[in-house]
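Is this the right way to post structure tokens for a design question? Let me know if I should format differently. Anyway, here goes:
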């Protein structure tokens, strides 16, 4: 399957991009948790088992699973001259700005990670000082610094493949991320969407070099003509204005962008942490956002610009209009306020729809999962004790590359 095709959130999922959590989680320390956007340190072995169970559920449902680390290694295998360019860019963006350290790190990676797959995984994992074995007789830093000091930070959020680049219909948004720690994740997107034979011709609606931030967790494909984007902690209104103009100027069939203004907080970092589509006419929603939510409708003004109007109807009415059938909102946690808050924190409303009415969810959210089952949804549960410590659920951990059309 060449190119990408994601004109909805719910039609049969055929191909999905994942990243299996790796050694980058072993470089999380209590002092760096906040900066690296984790709430606790997952047990890697169990996190990998849970992730493999997720991939198995998807494969058993007929979905082709591809891994980011493989696509990136395939690019470097195909174009050996890119290895040096990629490494130098990665080192620079890791904040290494002196010639001496750039050379030490370059040589270390090049000499010790001969295959491209190993090299890619190592760039994800990060480097600490003790690995570099520089000659202690000619530098003070190695004698006085803490050997566990990170020289190049890890990218522990990579298993949330939803966020750094997002498919929109037949195109992609390569995102500018909100946080320093996640901005290097998009380097892999830059290479795979430029060079990978399956992805290189995909139109790009946003670039990682733009100024304003936008993340894939805020981007929801309602159908081929309507896109929803959250205005959130992670996505700025300026980025939405920009991407809207780019989309309306392109060949994309999208005519309307609905911007959902959600409260700015860590618990609600992206639109998909409070709201996902699970069937033609059903969405799960965290009741905590119902009150404060405002929706803006963005259309082309026909002259290269956009026109925006605030919608004052209820969320059900707005969605019913755009989905084309009466919509039901299913609250996370049922009607129970405490269950809603607890389960939203562990991504109870963050479902991955693999065909209308069939979703993958975290097993731990039993109140919400029971409510979904009562509503007739086929709920496929995955283990989630360790993965959930990164604050993302099945939708965050997956980037669809292909869904069948309606
Ligand atoms: N699409 C999502 N909701 N992704 C969740 C990402 C979680 C990650 N720890 C972050 O803070 O960035």
């Amino acid at each position: 399957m060449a190119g990408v095709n994601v004109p909805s959130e719910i039609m049969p999922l055929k191909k999905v991009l994942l990243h299996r959590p790796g050694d980058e989680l072993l470089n999380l320390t209590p002092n760096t948790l906040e900066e690296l956007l984790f709430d606790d340190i997952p047990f890697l072995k169990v996190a990998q088992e849970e992730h493999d169970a997720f991939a198995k559920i998807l494969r058993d449902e007929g979905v082709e699973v591809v891994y980011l680390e493989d696509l990136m290694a395939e690019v470097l295998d195909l174009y050996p001259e890119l290895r040096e360019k990629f490494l130098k860019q990665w080192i620079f963006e890791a904040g290494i700005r002196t010639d001496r350290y750039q050379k030490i790190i370059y040589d270390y990676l090049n000499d010790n990670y001969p295959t491209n797959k190993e090299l890619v995984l190592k760039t994800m994992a990060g480097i600490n000082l003790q690995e570099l074995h520089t000659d202690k007789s000619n530098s003070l830093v190695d004698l006085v610094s803490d050997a566990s000091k990170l020289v190049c930070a890890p990218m522990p959020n990579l298993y949330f493949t939803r966020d750094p680049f997002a498919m929109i219909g037949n195109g992609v948004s390569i995102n500018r991320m909100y946080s320093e720690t996640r901005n290097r994740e998009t380097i892999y997107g830059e290479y795979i969407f430029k060079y990978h034979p399956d992805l290189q011709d995909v139109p790009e609606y946003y670039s990682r070099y733009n100024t304003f931030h936008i993340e894939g967790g805020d981007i929801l494909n309602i159908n081929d003509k309507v896109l929803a984007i959250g205005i959130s902690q992670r996505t700025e209104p300026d980025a939405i204005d920009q991407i809207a103009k780019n989309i309306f100027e392109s060949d994309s069939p999208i005519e309307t962008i609905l911007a959902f203004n959600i409260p700015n907080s860590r618990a609600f970092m992206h639109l998909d942490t409070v709201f996902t589509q699970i069937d033609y006419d059903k969405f799960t929603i965290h009741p905590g956002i119902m009150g404060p939510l405002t929706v803006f409708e963005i259309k082309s003004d026909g002259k290269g610009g956009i026109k925006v109007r605030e919608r004052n109807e209820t969320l059900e009415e707005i969605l019913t209009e755009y989905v084309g059938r009466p919509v039901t909102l299913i609250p996370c946690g049922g009607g129970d306020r405490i269950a809603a808050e607890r389960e939203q924190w562990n991504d109870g409303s963050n479902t991955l729809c693999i065909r209308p009415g069939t979703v993958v969810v975290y097993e731990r959210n039993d109140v919400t999962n029971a409510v979904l089952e009562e509503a007739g949804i086929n709920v496929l549960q995955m283990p989630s004790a360790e993965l959930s410590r990164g604050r993302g659920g099945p939708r965050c951990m997956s980037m669809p590359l292909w869904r069948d059309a309606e």
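Format looks fine. Someone answered above. Worth noting: Residues 3 and 227 are 19 Å apart (CA to CA). The mean pLDDT is 94.
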